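Weekly sync, protein design subgroup
Attendees: M.S., D.O., the rotation student, P.L. (late)

Item 1: inverse folding check
M.S. brought a backbone from last month's batch and wanted to see whether the design step gives back something sensible before we order anything. D.O. pointed out we never logged the input encoding, so this time it goes straight into the notes. Structure tokens as presented (101 positions):
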């Protein structure tokens, strides 16, 4: 669509639409990758760190591409959730690093 001049990439709404679709595609690809990894290992446990990273990516998408009428309180809640998930991921990584030593 962008190549055929059907959409103007300099238009703010078009940019948000295309960037949002790209972010959604990245989230879906990462989710598929994590499911395929579990299927190939024949295990039924999905790594918690992978799920946390996918959640952070999805929430970051909501913050980067906000809805037009989003309330400031919702932005604060999304930001707090991203921080909490980031802290959780960091703590899990630290635990894994200490186990490997």
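Designed sequence read out in the meeting:
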């Amino acid at each position: 669509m962008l190549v055929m001049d059907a959409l103007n990439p300099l238009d703010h709404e078009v940019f948000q639409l295309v960037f949002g679709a790209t972010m959604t595609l990245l989230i879906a690809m990462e989710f598929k990758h994590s499911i395929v990894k579990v299927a190939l290992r024949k295990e039924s446990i999905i790594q918690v760190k992978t799920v946390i990273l996918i959640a952070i990516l999805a929430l970051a998408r909501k913050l980067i591409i906000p809805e037009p009428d989003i309330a400031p309180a919702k932005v604060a809640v999304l930001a707090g959730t991203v921080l909490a998930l980031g802290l959780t991921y960091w703590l899990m990584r630290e635990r894994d690093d200490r186990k490997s030593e």
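Discussion: Residues 12-100 form one domain. DSSP finds three helices and no strands in the chain.
Action: P.L. to compare against the previous round before Friday.
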